[in-house]
Amino acid sequence: FLRKIFEGINSLEFQPSLDVTAMISEEGERVPFLRSFNPKDSQGSVERWLIECEAAMRESLKHELRRSFDAYASVERSDWVVQWPGQVVLAVDCMYWTKEVADAIGGGVLPNYTEQLTEELMKVVNKVRGQLTKLERKTLSALIVVDVHARDVAAELARAGVQSETDFEWMSQLRYMWEGGDVSVRMINAQIYYGYEYLGNGGRLVITPLTDRCYRTLMGALHLSLGGAPEGPAGTGKTETTKDLAK
């Protein structure tokens, strides 16, 4: 029943007192709640304690994102990626990539930054070859998919000679930002705030130029309070592309 409401939560961790202290994904990833809650306090109202569960989920994920964002700069990246929930790792990685690309554009060192991204990618690839738990391997596999696209985008921006943060080539990319204590996602003139829904530690879709175009259309539609209806043959990734954008 819980998964029909929160797809990423497979089960909750109950204490003997019935306090709920953590959420557990289908992959077995455990994320502790910042504050526990007890369904008994809702006096039999399922809706009330599910609302508490949603609030605890969002609050806890936001807390983990903030802590991970602060820790990123002080820890070796290859060690940092296995210390946090997979969803948090991917979101924070995208935020730092956005910040670093913007700094590289402003400093005119985009080609050098592309080389740095390649080196960081190879470090993650080498770590995958080592001794890892199944959960850590899933996190790193998803991170590699995101990192490959990030490197390709940076290389394309360097080839295009982008010199300003207002250049369309850069503005048209999916950019994660930490602003005013919240995570927001921008693309062209669209801005959407991160929802902090726990999604578990699933894989990520390989992003192609067609995927990017689909993202731009859907983000623009959401920004204008409209909807989107991807059309195409069966099995081409319409549903998965839309789901991946939501991550």
TrEMBL record:
Dynein heavy chain linker domain boundaries: 2-67
Gene Ontology biological-process entries: microtubule-based movement
Gene3D superfamilies: 1.20.58.1120, Dynein heavy chain, N-terminal domain 2, P-loop containing nucleotide triphosphate hydrolases
Molecular function via GO: ATP binding; dynein intermediate chain binding; dynein light intermediate chain binding
Domain Dynein heavy chain hydrolytic ATP-binding dynein motor region intervals: 194-247
GO cellular component: dynein complex
InterPro entries linked to this entry: AAA_6, DHC, Dynein_heavy_linker, Dynein_linker_3, P-loop_NTPase
Designated name of the protein: Dynein heavy chain hydrolytic ATP-binding dynein motor region domain-containing protein
Source species taxonomy: Eukaryota, Viridiplantae, Chlorophyta, core chlorophytes, Chlorophyceae
